[in-house]
Design a protein that fits this description.
Length: 168
């Protein structure tokens, strides 16, 4: 049985850390991050690049879902609009028997503190703070499973997700 687990939320909420923890708990699995398809210099957001990135993400998801050695594909990305999520799933979701979508959230003050720490450490650019805080409310009404990372470690969030998808 193929399983697609999508974890999304604003920058700094803990998606990557949770995905790494979930990967460690999941046999025959792979973790893919949509940001890898945007890792270009210079970073240019235009219609051509957006279309290319979505095409590449769908290609990767399809390829890994079709791999006979894998049972679970874990994918994370900042998808602040349902249309982005729907576009990612286009031509992909039918390859998985089960599709789970989890939205990670945090209180604005906690998200700000995390991002400011990352900015000071040189891990993020200063603009990521404003973007993440602007995106945060856009996730509130998405019809997904919402998990707060405010008082939950990445390991605890991964354990919660594993339980909800029937791993434990």
């Amino acid at each position: 049985m193929k399983r697609l687990v999508i974890i999304h939320g604003p920058m700094g909420v803990g998606k990557s850390a949770v995905c790494r923890e979930l990967l460690a708990r999941t046999e025959r699995s792979v973790y893919l991050d949509g940001d890898w398809c945007w890792n270009m210099h210079p970073f240019v957001v235009n219609e051509e690049n957006k279309a290319m990135v979505l095409q590449n993400i769908r290609f990767l998801l399809r390829s890994f879902l079709q791999n006979s050695g894998l049972q679970t594909v874990i994918f994370c990305w900042v998808m602040q609009d349902m249309s982005i999520l729907q576009s990612v799933l286009e031509g992909v979701s039918q390859l998985a028997k089960e599709v789970y979508v989890f939205t990670l959230t945090a209180e604005p003050s906690n998200l700000r503190a995390r991002l400011e720490k990352d900015i000071r450490a040189g891990l993020r650019d200063a603009g990521s703070l404003d973007r993440a805080l602007a995106y945060l409310p856009l996730y509130a009404n998405m019809p997904t499973v919402h998990l707060s990372t405010d008082d939950r470690s990445p390991a605890a969030a991964a354990e919660e997700i594993a339980g909800r998808i029937g791993l434990e």
